[in-house]
Design goal:
- By secondary structure, the protein is of the alpha/beta class.
- The chain has one domain (4-269): Alpha-Beta Complex (Spore Coat Polysaccharide Biosynthesis Protein SpsA, Chain A).
- 33% of the residues lie in helices and 27% in strands.
- The chain contains 9 helices and 13 strands.
- It has helices at 35-45, 61-66, 69-79, 82-97, 109-114, 139-150, 212-217, 229-238, 258-269, and strands at residues 4-8, 29-30, 33-34, 50-55, 98-102, 124-128, 132-135, 153-159, 169-176, 181-189, 200-209, 243-247, 251-254.
- The protein has a 9-stranded mixed sheet.
- It is globular.
- The mean pLDDT is 97.
- It binds 1-O-phosphono-alpha-D-glucopyranose.
- The site of 1-O-phosphono-alpha-D-glucopyranose (G1P) has 14 residues, from strand 11.
Length: 271
């Protein structure tokens, strides 16, 4: 079964400047709760108990958030505030499940994933991109359930505006299996409107086979000079690996851009 998840967190967050000039975007509060906690809750509720954070030296504040025991103990001793005690317990609960690996050069999602290679034990694992929040329904849980049926790699999918395809990985659908799932014939990272094989975009939830590491090892830099997970997946598809696109239920919220980030807080506050 799928028990491990990896979460790339080494990105610079330039789309959220100036908020990210001294702070990690994943710790920014969305309706009073750091974005990363939404992602952690989704993983844990989906049955994941081993979570690998890929951070960088510049983003050690994320580690500090989970390792601030001395500070909490001192405050709790002085104040005995039940709210703080509960928050600290929650942090300890998360901390037990998290390992940290480093990606000090921001060379892309594919490069981040390679860094976790020696920690991945099972044949398949979950990858979550923290800029993509999905609320109202646990997308990871639904995908793990679908995986139990199909036993192959999977990626979350959503239709996007045709004018914005160059912001996403875009699928070419092979065959519609049912209302929620389709097999993937091809996937292209950030195509132009003309190149795009559809307007079905990749959203940041993936179930990947360990074999991806072999492909990532030889993966050359792609769009924007980064090593993209999409490019390695594409090669796997061409080598007859089965990939399924999962049209997730639930609401997608983009937390990686300033307008999306602001909107996410508003939307979540109304849930
Ligand atoms: C990444 C992926 C892209 C995917 C997107 C979803 O892009 O490379 O294929 O559509 O996440 O959010 P990024 O957001 O890192 O530019």
């Amino acid at each position: 079964m799928i028990k491990q998840a990896i979460i790339p967190l080494a990105g610079l967050g330039t789309r959220l400047l100036p908020l990210t000039s001294v702070f990690a975007k994943e710790l920014l509060p969305i309706n009073g709760k750091p974005g990363i906690e939404y992602i952690l809750d989704e993983c844990i509720e989906a049955g994941i108990n081993d979570i690998i954070f890929i951070i960088s030296k510049k983003k050690e504040i994320i580690k500090k958030y989970f390792y601030n025991d001395k500070f909490y103990k001192k405050i709790i001793k002085k104040k005995k505030d039940p709210r703080i005690i509960n928050e600290y317990k929650k942090i300890l609960f998360y901390k037990k499940k998290i390992k940290f690996v480093y990606q000090n050069m921001p060379l892309g999602t594919g490069d981040a994933v390679i860094k976790t290679k020696k920690h991945i034990k099972d044949k398949f694992f979950l990858l979550l991109l923290p800029d993509d929040l999905i609320v109202k329904r646990n997308c990871s849980k639904d995908m793990i359930n679908a995986y139990k049926r199909y036993r192959c790699s999977m990626m979350a999918s959503m239709k996007v505006n045709k004018n914005n395809v160059d912001r996403w990985g875009i699928f070419k659908i092979e065959k519609i299996l049912n209302k929620k799932n389709f097999t993937i014939k091809d996937v292209v990272e950030k195509p132009t409107k003309v190149e795009a094989p559809s307007n079905n975009a990749v959203i940041g939830r993936y179930i990947l086979s360990k074999d991806i590491f072999k492909y990532l090892k030889n993966q050359k830099k792609g769009k924007g000079g980064e090593i993209h997970i999409t490019d390695a997946i594409r090669k796997m598809i061409f080598n007859n690996y089965r990939f399924i696109g999962h049209k997730f239920s639930g609401q997608y919220l983009d937390c990686g851009s300033m307008s999306g980030y602001i909107n996410s807080g508003i939307k979540i506050s109304k849930l």
